[in-house]
Amino acid sequence: MHKCGIFAQTLRQLHLIHMYARVENSKKQFVMCKEWSNFADTKKKEMTENPKHIQIADYNYPLPDERIAKFPLSQRDHSKLLVYNKGVVSEDTFTALPSYLPAGALMVFNNTKVIQARLHFHKETGALIEVFCLEPAAPTDYALMFQQKGACSWFSLVGNLKKWKEGALHRSICMPCGNTLVLSVLRGENMGTSFKMDFTWQWQESNCTAELPTWAEVLDAVGELPIPPYLNRETQESDKKTYQTVYSKIKGSVAAPTAGLHFTENVLADLDKHGIDREELTLHVGAGTFKPVKSKEIEGHEMHTEHIAVHRRTIEKLIAHGGWAIAVGTTSVRTLESLYYMGVIANQDPDATEEELHVPQWMPYEGTTDNGQQTTDKLTNLDALQALLMYMDRHNLEVLHSSTQIIIAPGYNYHIVKMMVTNFHQPQSTLLLLVSAFVNGDWRTIYDYALAHDFRFLSYGDSSLLIP
Predict the structure, then answer these.
(1) What is the pTM of this model?
(2) HSE (CB half, 13 Å, CA atoms) of 431?
(3) Mean pLDDT on 351-372
(4) Do 208 and 301 sit in the same domain of this protein?
């Protein structure tokens, strides 16, 4: 089987959803599908029901395959920008984004970098085995992981697993220094949805005195950049640049924070000229971001854990800006909103460990009444951020490392994010739920317009600025 197809088959099972028949669209006239005629009733229902009982089928829309952007535009900031401003929809080019933002606002970016996480090995029989590195197992710290020399472990998916019964797999790599490195992998414990994989590497020549490369250097030499399987193509050399944001810095993601792909150095400079303050945080995006909601109600969907790193200066800037921010992408949204609940935890238990600041999936909805009102959000956004800052002072932390499983769905009360830049997401996905919660259930207005006006969808597609 072609190497691209081996893992694509595995990951498609995680995230491919039913596509519907092509919709006849017009650039000049907005045409609603008949099945969407009950939008007003649905919107009212969203705002009053218990979030756990939301029916994912209510968040479906027809997405023809030809509307999915398979490649980015040659100039990333020339993509289309849909502007949703308090219910009114218009469109522009992404280069115009700064002109829509209020001077003095704080814009927050996710500076994670996609790693070349796909590794291919051949058995002696010729069978091709693919190992997709998802999350560090030993050491668990991302920064330490990429500095390892000689050995490390990752939780990974395995493509063509049935062909790999036992034993280690090996691969020879010609490194930039001219020496040959032997990379070996041994399959460890079955973790349910992944395997613990133990990697070792050493020089092929026993008398080689060169220093062993770091794990980061090994991945750069032999790994393949993962791109979404719905693109239905192999990773190309150009993806190494186009599937990274221009401000990516911290290695760790296996999928890009795609709202950031539209930004260029020119757009960033224009933000500065418009008086927009910029700050960065880190959330490493896992393959679980593509996981479809298979349960009828979202209560049956388990969110994947995401690891975040936030500097003290970022929290100080948030406080200086009144606790409000413009989020670039849903990963920044989840991080910023998780900071509120980490502040709640820190306020209740100042001696909690960083791991104990983890935000459980349903924490925002604990104490939710029958009419959808949340009773646990007792701190203001500034109070929560101040509590988190005091926690960092107490524990002498310059960078907060923790994790979140937060699910943001209709009925959620946003605490920090006031404007959002985001791409167009898959039907029946948790990302679409997040958008719906942000625009008070009016997501169909946005997606109807995008479908009717030739917007490109998903990772390499166009973007939107949402102002509820």
Answers:
(1) 0.87
(2) 23
(3) 83
(4) no
